[in-house]
Specification:
BirA Bifunctional Protein, domain 2, homodimer, 13 helices, OB fold (Dihydrolipoamide Acetyltransferase, E2P), 5-stranded mixed barrel, 2 domains, 431 residues, 18 strands, alpha+beta, 8-stranded mixed beta sheet
Chain lengths: 431, 431
């Protein structure tokens, strides 16, 4: 690959002869001239091939080459504002590596079931490319933000002996002679790690066996869970704000072309700026009632409620002070009124809804033991977790941010399934 | 936390009054003066408390405070070469957040079973700290190296419909009405992704249900799998060399104190330098026979064989041209002699053995179909994988590097279980 140049790096090779190794994305002919659109994974370039540039039989073969045939093209890079991508190549040599069989995904619309069944090929499309590049940039932004902010990466285990928030939505695994469950959150482990390292995060896949088919759910998704010893709800909310602003800034800086491919309204992303508005759960209920979507106190939001609330602001919206009743056992009650917990969800704007859940954790041994008993959770399984309140308990707080939900919002697309390379859904584990 | 300062940042606060929020690591008294060793996750500092600095009853309490009690200490930072860590604090104020129950892990030796059972607390020890900080640095180095080298992160799925290399070592999951398996490698998915993005990698947990109890095996471990379209065995070997050199350089630069805590022989790491020596499988057999550890041709190395080979060099050692017989079905045979495959393993020095396996993949549809049939693999499950050879097949190659094995070697420690925050072993999924 010594003289291979990636299309993304063409700006450094203008006027030079280079080799591109890729696939035929599209082709059109104008008599003695052929325009081969070649993609190499980093971009697409138009390679201009004139009759006489290559032997006649090769020229003829190129004229009927199926889409996605693998080809190596050698030629001179030319800047051309009119060309898609801004560059053209004047071809001097073509090597057909493999003539593809007729490609199942033509450059036209297909049903989503067909595309999901061919996800291994659908990955090659421009839109999928744009989304997954943005996903990779978001992940890098999150990691860089946390690493530079003094957080230590501590990977949480995937195999866990017990449920974090109940067992109904867990996938069970036969672990030799025991039963194990796939983690749906690394949070409890991050609490242990925060007591050791101060500021920590885990970043890995999480699993929820929810029989739901909404456009916001996956069975397998990626989550980042920072946890801060001696941190408060206010600390994590400020950390979330800074992180979201950093993510958006990175994507705007490095992925502008990808956003354009997705026809994203970039102006909306450019408006994201800390501090984010805050609203309490009780205030939310008033607004929802005014907007004709009343919810009884003590019930959790559904997607329509979140949509109404987050559509009211350009920025993400914090909803705070939820009723303890429908929040997890480990959340710390608000000392000023124990009906509420010291938690906050962050809802993305433009109707995208929750992307982060966070809050302060119960740090009292006695109260936590009571909660575990009330929730009828298997107390032996939580014995180690209770140890964290026996040996130097401290106030602490954290949050979890969903990678795919964040990507869906930033990309401005409809369905979460396109934001992960190989989506796992209720009726899909193939390919 | 507005005025909280982390011990790791003390160099910027010499002579200033700061607040440290942490835990009591150790304590000793000399009459009217107490030396409190306080750890805050980022480091350990000696806080010097004189009688009269705080109220008498608080001074008396501090004198009997159990290890790991949570305390907030306010005082002035002083440079002191004799102090462990290089700094001291002259305490002006102490707040005891929680008096710990008697701490089960005293500052003495414990058996490993006891420590593993208390992993959530063991995380707080100095040695564990050093290892997991190095682990985090290695992970960051790998990601930075690949991101800067034009690779796109494409997360492979964890739930898979079929086995990559046979089903005997797979964990099975009930996936609603289907059976799914936990991924033991993302490679096949990376091959699909490389055809779309050119250069890709996945980085996630992998699972092997091997009933093995060696010091080199975990049931759940983290793996990085880069894949390069149009890449050859030579390309991936050079990529591996550059990556390993980069990882070692980052750890030497940023984790010197951690290496010292582990009493790592740093000179050995400083010798790591590309190019790495290479030896063929057949040559290896000759050496093994000479050293009294003969192995019949066609059998894979065991740990003792790897140990002999990698002890012969300061650098990691490539072993190439393995017999096809014991390598995976997707490996490309060496065109010059099809008994061998175009693969290479990288063995870490100092007896640590294999940390990377890699090679070129079979790119011919016909040959791959034959291999799948010969290996009696479920061909429907591989239908999508075969598509990659139908639609623009290209030569391609990749490798997989194990995070924990690499960390074990770089830390210079004996057992892999200490290199992951919550190890999952044959008889351990707790805590």
């Amino acid at each position: 690959m010594s003289d291979q140049v990636f299309i993304a790096n063409f700006k450094d090779h203008i006027g030079k002869e280079v080799t591109v190794k890729g696939w035929l994305y599209n082709q059109r002919s104008k008599g003695k001239i052929q325009f081969l659109q070649v993609r190499d994974g980093s971009g697409i370039v138009q390679a201009v091939l004139g009759k006489g540039d290559v032997p006649d039989d090769l020229f003829a073969r190129c004229d009927h080459l199926p889409q996605e045939s693998s080809i190596v093209v050698r030629g001179v890079v030319r800047e051309d504002k009119r060309a898609p991508g801004g560059y053209e190549m004047s071809v001097k040599h073509v090597e057909i590596v493999q003539e593809s069989q007729p490609y199942p995904i033509a450059l036209k619309e297909h049903g989503v079931d067909f595309l999901l069944e061919h996800r291994h090929l659908w990955l090659r499309s421009r839109k999928t490319h744009a989304i997954l590049r943005i996903r990779a940039r978001i992940i890098k932004a999150i990691r860089d933000f946390l690493d530079n902010d003094g957080f230590v990466l501590i990977d949480a285990p995937i195999f866990t002996p017990a449920a974090c928030e109940g067992t109904t939505t867990l996938f069970a695994v036969d672990y030799f002679d025991e039963k194990a469950y796939l983690s749906q959150s690394g949070q409890l482990y991050m609490e242990a790690a925060a007591m050791a390292f101060g500021k920590v995060y885990c970043f890995g896949p999480a699993f929820r066996a929810e029989k739901s088919k909404t456009r916001r759910h996956l069975m397998e998704f990626w989550m980042v869970e920072p946890e801060i010893a001696y941190g408060t709800l206010e600390d994590v909310m400020q950390c979330e704000e800074r992180m979201i602003c950093y993510i958006v800034a990175c994507v705007l800086k490095d992925c502008r072309k990808d956003l354009e491919v997705l026809e994203r309204d970039i102006a909306k992303l450019e408006k994201i700026k800390a501090p984010f508005p805050r609203i309490s759960y009780d205030e939310s209920l008033k607004i929802l009632a005014e907007k004709g979507n009343a919810l009884p106190w003590g019930q959790d939001f559904g997607a329509p409620h979140e949509e109404i609330l987050c559509n009211m602001h350009d920025n993400p919206l914090f909803v705070t002070r939820f009723p303890a009743a429908f929040k997890a056992f480990y959340m710390k009650p608000d000392p000023s009124d124990e009906k509420y917990v010291l938690g906050a969800d962050l809802l993305a704007p433009e109707g995208y809804g929750e992307i982060i859940g966070g809050g302060q954790r119960e740090d009292s041994l006695e109260r936590l033991e009571k909660k575990i008993a009330e929730n009828k959770l298997p107390s032996e399984a939580f014995s180690w977790y209770l140890d964290l309140r026996r040996y130097g308990s401290v106030p602490h707080a954290g949050f979890g941010i969903g990678v795919e939900r964040t990507t869906t919002w930033i990309c401005g697309i409809h369905h979460i399934r396109e934001t992960i390379p190989f989506p796992r859904m209720l009726e899909r584990i193939y390919p």
